[in-house]
Design brief:
- By secondary structure, the protein is α/β, with parallel strands linked by helices.
- Helices cover 28% and strands 16% of the residues.
- An eight-stranded mixed β-sheet has the order 5-4-7-1-9-13-2-14, sandwiched between helices. Strands 16-17-18-19 form a four-stranded antiparallel β-sheet, with helices on one face.
- Helix 1 runs parallel beside helix 6, helix 2 crosses helix 12 and helix 8 runs parallel beside helix 12.
- The longest helix has 28 residues.
- The protein starts with 7 loop residues before the first helix and ends in a 9-residue tail after the last helix.
Length: 461
């Protein structure tokens, strides 16, 4: 991998104070957002008018997939342009600079090659990588209201003992709202250089707390639960069953092992409708403040020269395959929302049905910003699809969860191979819910052998 770190400072010193000729970038990461947005039809009760209006201004991808179904590796992969199998960042505990100290993040490259100012706020990277000094000119982190952040909260009604429920609180006190306020202020300023502003949302990550008015948009008696199959796990290999049986004890008890797994706990306490309502409510809450961002951009002097990219870092299960949260390699765990709107040559109000990866965003933005491409990136520019969403695009997407656990997604197939040799295969033409694992059927062996060719040949520990 070519190292740029030794030359970044030198290159920056050569970049003149240019006018705002290059397009600006408004980058909107949304934590734990799956495809439950209105225009994608991920859930019939999703209410996201602002994300939907952004989609009308550009291209939205119906098959957008994360690089890893976990916050840190997904975000490190996106911002470095490198797959987890090439960085060794598989979990939330690894630090990007420990694993890939010479990596040049998207923001570094925009500064060095394009003369961009780069600012971030809220949740962009994850954890200790958040304030990476090489990546930001400035990073905004509002103070959190600790009473709201915790699972037991002075604002919560007594019945809301699970990690979800409505808040009776001033919306201006919330972390995401404060961060959007900051981004709006930046959009209102005069900038003499092109800017990259990342405004990251922490919701709909758990706990699913949001102001009560967003719960009122989704009445509990009307909630539609996801389609499930009672014996869905029976045909899974060992690691598939292990991943499905994660535990998050909603009863408040600390000894998870004595209280069953996620799905059992949610159904035992009759919390499934409430959980779905809460997830939908937090998405609607985020959508409202995405709307504020878009309004501010439109009212600024930069509305006609700004690329807007909105993305979720991975998918999220709410009972499908009797699984909750992320941490698996299935469709629902890895599929997310991705919308790109911007220059005149980007198609408008189009859905692209080709499988794409979040690792493709790095080269895509370089392309859209008119910057030189970089050697060594694992993604591919999506600009051809942004111009012609229906064009042929035969490029499988790779997803990784942990060392040597991978999934391959093509237009029709999902193939999963675990580090112990266990396999899953699903035909999305006939089985969009992934209820029937075809891997044990010898008829499909040639197909799986072909799909295996897209697995990484290198797996960094």
């Amino acid at each position: 991998m070519k190292s740029y770190s030794a030359t970044i400072v030198f290159i920056l010193s050569l970049v003149p104070l240019i006018g705002n000729d290059r397009p600006n970038v408004l980058f909107i990461p949304i934590d734990d957002l799956n495809s439950w947005v209105g225009h994608l039809g991920g859930h019939p009760q999703a209410l996201t008018p602002n994300i939907d209006r952004l989609a009308k201004r550009g291209v939205s991808f119906t098959k957008a997939y994360c690089n890893a179904p976990l916050c840190n590796p997904s975000r490190v992969s996106l911002f470095t342009g490198l797959l987890p199998s090439n960085t060794g960042v598989y979990g939330n505990g690894e630090m990007m600079r420990d694993k890939v100290p010479d990596a040049v993040t998207l923001m570094q490259y925009l500064r060095a090659e394009g003369g961009y100012t780069v600012q971030g706020g809220g949740k962009t990277f994850h954890g200790s990588s958040l304030n990476d000094p090489k990546s930001w000119d400035y990073y905004n982190q509002p103070n959190r209201n600790r009473r709201i952040r915790g699972e037991r909260d002075a604002y919560l009604p007594e019945e809301a003992w699970a990690p979800w429920g409505p808040l009776d609180v001033e919306e201006s006190e919330l972390f995401d709202v404060k961060n959007v306020d900051w981004a709006i202020a930046e959009l209102g300023k005069s900038h003499d250089k092109p800017f990259f502003i990342a405004c990251g949302f922490t919701k709909p990550h758990m706990p699913w707390y949001a102001p009560r008015k967003y719960f009122d948009l989704h009445p509990i008696d009307d909630i539609v639960l996801p389609d499930t199959l009672d014996n869905d796990r029976d045909d899974l290999p060992y690691w598939g069953k292990r991943f499905a049986m994660e535990v998050h004890d909603v009863s408040g008890a600390r000894n998870f092992a004595t209280h069953g797994e996620d799905h059992d706990m949610v159904t035992k306490h009759k919390q499934w409708p409430r959980a779905v309502q809460s997830y939908l409510a937090t998405i609607s809450y985020v959508d409202a403040h995405v709307g504020r961002l878009l309004d501010a951009l439109d009212q600024s002097e930069y509305g006609d020269n700004t690329i807007v990219v909105l993305w979720g870092d991975h998918g999220w299960h709410l009972g499908e395959k009797q699984h909750w949260r992320k941490h698996a390699l299935w469709e629902v765990t890895t599929k997310t929302t991705l919308v790109i709107a911007g220059p005149e040559d980007v198609a408008k109000n189009q859905l692209c049905k080709k499988p794409v990866s979040l690792v493709d965003l790095y080269p895509t933005l370089l392309d859209l910003c008119g910057l030189p491409s970089r050697d060594g990136l694992d993604g591919k520019s999506l600009v051809p699809l942004l111009k012609s969403p229906e064009m042929e695009w035969e490029r499988p997407v790779l997803m990784t969860f942990g060392y040597e656990n991978h999934a391959i997604r093509t237009d029709r197939w999902r193939y999963i191979r675990y580090n112990n040799g266990g396999e899953e295969l699903y035909d999305h033409d006939s089985d969009p819910n992934e209820w029937k694992n075809l891997a044990s059927n010898a008829e499909y062996r040639p197909l799986m052998d072909m799909l295996k060719r897209s697995l990484p040949t290198t797996n960094v520990r």
